[in-house]
Write a structure and sequence with these properties.
- The chain has 227 residues and is of the alpha+beta class.
- The protein is 52% helix and 16% strand.
- A four-stranded antiparallel beta sheet has the order 2-3-1-4.
- Strand 2 and strand 3 form a beta hairpin.
- Helix 1 runs antiparallel to helix 4.
- The chain is elongated and about 80 Å long.
- The chain starts with 14 loop residues before the first helix and ends with a helix.
- 20% of the residues are buried.
């Protein structure tokens, strides 16, 4: 009698075996999707990506079963995928972990290894939950990008040094740009904030120096590394 904790022999493919693999693949994809939703519950995330994680093990299982041991099919499938263009860039590199996990589960299911697929899903789920609970993926040091608009007649060389000394561990002027037809300078600093500082107080002191012009403080990693 076939049970979940077994390996299905796919050399003799039947409708029942295929349906079982598709059902369990979808179920395990749902587990990965729920783990993603749980670990991102306090952040803004793409719900379409969550749905993709749900369906990815199912799709991978279908593709591998169709290819099977037929080399001609494998090359044909590779040719089809060269026509596919993915236009959505992954902004959070941690999402790649979920994608690879879903692909791994789909591969295990397509080979009939139900036991391994269940073990892989359970182990990955435990690891991801522990990382989220203990906040191992959170950066301890607060790196930030600081953009300050100043009038053209203000010498920016050392004008903010005393404020930075008070609130910042390190700072680097990475970009100077003229704006408003050359009447303003936009200064971009890469800084590392001290622990438990009052960001509002820091910005208020900077506003005194730049004449209450625009100041932007960004701590999101993607925004920091982008222009």
């Amino acid at each position: 009698m076939m049970t979940f904790f077994t390996t299905i022999d796919l050399t003799d493919m039947t409708v029942g075996k295929v349906i079982l693999i598709l059902l369990i693949s979808t179920l395990l994809g749902g587990v990965i999707s729920l783990i993603y939703a749980f670990t991102h519950r306090k952040t803004v995330y793409d719900h379409a990506f969550n749905t993709t994680l749900l369906l990815l093990p199912l799709v991978v299982s279908i593709i591998i079963m169709l290819v099977s041991n037929n080399i001609a099919r494998a090359f044909s499938l590779a040719g089809v995928f060269t026509l596919v263009r993915f236009r959505s860039a992954i902004t959070d590199t941690r999402d790649i972990t979920y994608i690879l996990s879903a692909v791994g589960v789909g591969l295990a299911m397509s080979l009939g290894m139900i036991t391994y697929a269940l073990m892989i899903t359970a182990f990955i789920a435990i690891v991801l939950i522990l990382i989220n609970v203990f906040k191992l993926d959170i950066q301890r040091k607060t790196h930030a990008k600081l953009k300050i608009i100043i009038p053209e007649n203000l010498n920016y060389a050392h004008v903010f040094d005393d404020v930075f000394h008070k609130y910042v561990e390190s700072s680097q002027l990475s970009r100077v740009k003229t704006t408003d037809f050359g009447t303003m300078f936009e200064l971009t600093y890469l800084i590392k904030l001290k622990a438990n500082i009052d960001q509002k107080a820091m910005i208020d002191e900077l506003r005194v120096r730049n004449g209450n012009l625009s100041i932007t403080l960004t701590t999101d990693y993607i925004s920091i590394i982008s222009e």
